[in-house]
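Please review this one:
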Amino acid sequence: MAPRSAQERRPMVARTPRMPEPEARRPEVLCQSAAASIPADAAQEPNVLLAKIRAIMFFSWSFMLSLPLFVTMLAMAPFVQTLDKYK
């Protein structure tokens, strides 16, 4: 196998075109995926009441899921205190 030149040993990286100068860039388009999305001025304002309701529902659901574990730990605590040999 013949030795490769320095240029052949460089990692193969796809060459990308140079970015245009800042004054030539279009400020209204950030990237191709942003250009395909909903325009920023068409975005709706977030509903604060809906956000608060969702937060309360999340907290309630998390609390209800944790209750059985908490009760189980309370029921086991006296046995652990009496039978634990590493007090």
Observations:
- Residues 45-87 form one domain.
- Residues 70 and 76 are 10 Å apart (CA to CA).
- Residues 48-83 form the longest helix (36 residues).
